[in-house]
Amino acid sequence: MHDLLTSLQGLPPLLIYVIAAIVVAGETAVIFGLLVPGEATLLLIGFLAYAGTLRLVPALLVMILAAVIGDTLAYRAGQRHGPRLRAGRLGARVGHERWSRADAMLGRLGGRGVLTARWVAFARTLVPRLAGAARMPYRRFAPWNLAGVVTWVGGSVLAGNLAGESYETVSRLLGRATGAVLVLVAALVAVVLAGRWLGRNPDPVRALASRAAGLRPVRWLSGRYGVLFFLLAMHVGPAWTLLINLVAGLLLLFVAGFAIAWVLGAVVRHSGLAVLDGAIADWFADRRTPGAVDVTLAVVSALRGSSLIVLVAVVAAVLAWRNRPWRADLLSVVGTVGAFVPLVVLAVVVDLAGPAAGGPDGRGSALFPAQNAVVAASLCTLAWLSSRRARWPVAVAAWTAAAAGVVGIVGARLYLGLSTASGSATAVLLGVAWTALFMVAWATRDKAVGGDPAEPAPVALRADA
């Protein structure tokens, strides 16, 4: 490997750019790209930029342009020859399983699948062709694809650049990173499925209890002590029943939160991202100045998780007051006036989950525990609440502000040395996934009732009335 790097450093930069661009574009432009080491090439470009052979910014721009061109050619090929290629001998060599997995990703996620595919080795070669064959409009394909290209190319080149002399270590860990991405995609799909189930069962405790009632031991208890249960239910009353259901629902949310935190923590820990923690921390430390530290610390102190939770509570209360009717179940409570409740649950979960979800010491600092996770979830919740009935410019502005806030707080904590890169990634993923769970649930509930679930259901009139 050392001999290869020495040989490459002796080549003209223009020739390196051309060869690397052909490799990166060819990974998706031709079906044989399944065998092309695109990620390793980008890491190598980053290392050569670190060594001074190439310049970092031109290298990034050239690689991004090459990847976009390759994906565009693949998309056009899918439009023209997609079905024939898939049915042919070459498509058979790709394998039915790979085609099916890429197909499922695109069908399930749409444009988001195009973005996700950029991070999965086989998918980034196949998905652009599937998008073209499925007649996905190019104006929809292009922005999602560009977002995936920028993040994948930028992340890979910067990883190689930051790794420096540890390039060989990063290259060796690349396979683990790809596997971690696959697990992450599976985890996010599980979050979406859980959200859809919650949307179809807005009172999860009752839904689980009704299923448990069909079990043989429960049927035996009901048959033997049914009268006692009935008398007990009569004394409880509807108000206490709702309270018990909400408390039991919150316990379910705690369990779900711990499960998501554990999975995402395991994904990041085994992805090899931690190998960059030291390099990233040193990079920020070299640029730390007393004046900038004071300003950054003020920003971190202002964007405390506890303050944002209070802000979410106020916004949710105002919106609930403007749209007063709501149903007496868990989802309606946490989707309207109680939108702050999942954030409190998340804060407790990440505080108990340990170092995987927080900063270097698990709590990061004397500020609100696991600030990155709570801030990410709070800002996403605020964007969701404010854009639910708004026009698309307002929605775009709200989500853009939320993204900028998350990037700002993560960058500020990294600058101050309060978080590691791997810990920040875990925390932000947890906060976003936690918010996505309730967004999917609310959207599913909305479709199920044929309108805004906060509105009262219409009373059905009898035909003989």
TrEMBL record:
Signal peptide stretch: none
Transmembrane as UniProt keyword: yes
TM region(s), chain numbering: 14-35, 42-69, 144-164, 176-198, 218-236, 243-264, 297-321, 333-354, 366-385, 392-416, 422-443
UniProt main location, coarse: membrane
InterPro entries: DedA-like (IPR032818), VTT_dom (IPR032816)
UniProt keyword Membrane present: yes
One Pfam family named in its UniProt record: VTT_dom
Top-rank taxon, per record: Bacteria
Protein keywords: Cell membrane, Membrane, Transmembrane, Transmembrane helix
Cellular localisation: Cell membrane
Annotated VTT domain residues: 36-161
PANTHER family per the UniProt record, alphabetical: INNER MEMBRANE PROTEIN DEDA-RELATED, TRANSMEMBRANE PROTEIN
Protein name, entry field: Undecaprenyl-diphosphatase
Record organism: Micromonospora echinofusca
